[in-house]
Model the fold of this input.
Amino acid sequence: MTLRDAASLLPRERFAAALERKPLRGRVPHFELVFFLTMEAFGKVHPHHRNYHQWDQMEEQERQRHRVDMADLYIATCERFEQDAILLHPNPGREDEIFRLVDLIREKSGDRYFLMLHGDATYSLPSGKHMMEFVEQLADEPEKMKANAAQMVRDRLSFAARMKDHGGLDGFALCADYCFNSGPFLSPDMFGEFVTPYLAELTRGYRDMGYYVVKHTDGNIMPILDQLAQTRPHALHSLDPQGGVDIAEVKRRYGRDLCLIGNVNCGLLDTGTDAECVESARYALKHGMPGGGYIFSTSNCVYTGMRLARYELILDVWRREGVA
Done:
């Protein structure tokens, strides 16, 4: 397979090439699921954290200023931190506003960046408040829960089709979390009954429409790794080392089938030493890069409370050593 020079490609093209596991010459792509440190970096609240309960009371001119500000902030984040893709958090999350935000970013940046939306429709790890209710429903009403799972997939694919008609979007990030650090919330058998078939149907539907699919879940995914791979996403994120996920092992087992994203230890970025952070970034690059199909990223996101200097530290490692 011919090597392509990463520097000659647009960020969107680099990102797509990595998702397709095409070998690249030069620096591997970079992406963060979310970059929440917009106040520290730019003096602005992240779009996801903005309160727009009075949106309908605003004049259209004021709403448009908010839209433009959000679009500008996403683009500025990519430019400053050399990210290749944007996972949008439309706020408000109404369909018409999603379309407007996608259009604004495309208008301002053209095809430069790879654009994604959240797109999961599978059962995720329930909150503590609803955990007992959820497991009781699985035990007492399994067919009803499966019917609900199927309907959630149909609804999500219906939206994806409307988004396809509108244009401008490259893919979906499937952000239902399934695992604790100790392992999956559902046993592998139950996961195979209540999640895997619907995740496979959702992924297949997206791919049939021409979208890319990135499957995200934190925690120890190893007991369900085979099932996740069988649903055929283009990529797995976050490969959480705090859950005991070793990128070298995942690469060995599925590097020919899946692009891998992540594995730089978020916990160390908070509580570790600089040397430990550097070593985590180096480990992810060393074991993720060979043969292509790797995108540099933290093992979750750049979340509120993380020191910006720590994120910039691992970016320095990526700039120096993330070169194929």
Notes: The mean pLDDT is 97. The longest strand covers residues 114-118. Residues 11 and 70 are 20 Å apart (CA to CA). DSSP finds 13 helices and eleven strands in the chain.
